[in-house]
Amino acid sequence: MDWKHVVVLITIPTDKGLELADYIVKNKLGACVNVVPEVNSIYWWKGNIERDKESLLMIKTSLQKLEELIKEVKSVHPYTVPEIIALPILGGNEDYLRWIDDSLGL
Amino acid sequence: MDWKHVVVLITIPTDKGLELADYIVKNKLGACVNVVPEVNSIYWWKGNIERDKESLLMIKTSLQKLEELIKEVKSVHPYTVPEIIALPILGGNEDYLRWIDDSLGL
Amino acid sequence: MDWKHVVVLITIPTDKGLELADYIVKNKLGACVNVVPEVNSIYWWKGNIERDKESLLMIKTSLQKLEELIKEVKSVHPYTVPEIIALPILGGNEDYLRWIDDSLGL
Question: Which of A64, B56, C59, C101 could form a disulfide with B36 if both were Cys (CB 3.0 to 4.6 A apart)?
Answer without folding.
Answer: B56
